[in-house]
Amino acid sequence: MDVRKILVVVEDVDIARTALQWTLHNLLRYGDIITLLHVFSMTRSKSKKNLRLLRLKGFQLALSFHELCNNFFNTKTEIVVTQGDQDGGKITSMVREIGASTLVAGLHDHSFLYSLAMTHNNIASNLNCKVLAIKQPTPPMATRTRTISFQDSSTNMDFSQIDIDALR
Predict the structure, then answer these.
(1) 137 — pLDDT class (breaks 50, 70, 90)
(2) Separation of alpha carbons 53 and 51, rounded Å
(3) What is the average per-residue pLDDT within 69-88?
(4) Is 54 helix (H, G, I), strand (E, B) or coil?
(5) Distance from C-alpha of 39 to C-alpha of 85, rounded to nearest angstrom
(6) How far is CA 61 from the centre of its chain?
(7) What is the per-residue DSSP string for 68-84?
(8) Cα gap 20→62, rounded to integer Å
(9) Cis check: omega of the bond before 139, within 30 degrees of 0
(10) Distance (Å, rounded) from C-alpha 17 to C-alpha 81?
(11) Is residue 86's pLDDT more than 80?
(12) Sign of the alpha-carbon torsion through 68, 51, 6, 29
């Protein structure tokens, strides 16, 4: 069985944690490597102190995600905290750099996936991996998991969206 590299985007929103939990419960296989990636945005003030503080906060956030992984036996987890724009460019380059087979992100109103979809005709082929967007449904939705494949001509979204109600 091949070892897969799964990149999970770490953001300070509940759906990002839910996306990681979904990945651990439904996607992770023995031997797979999960890379937790947090990209903090560049600020106008480029002082070294400010950049260190942003990096530290990002690392603390990633460590809180890492704790979720510790509940799964033999989970191999890496943490990457880096600086970049919120348009998804840094995430795209990290997917390529680590050779990820799957990118998992929580889908929310300010998700980088929307801006990425606007700039690329085919997200998955541009990244050369599966892209899974985990979205918390608005009530009252069925309590089962649904997978929706996007192919919207106005936004060119070609990632899979997975609506979940609750992890059991």
Answers:
(1) low
(2) 5
(3) 88
(4) helix
(5) 8
(6) 13
(7) HHTTSTT-EEEEEEEEE
(8) 11
(9) no
(10) 16
(11) no
(12) negative
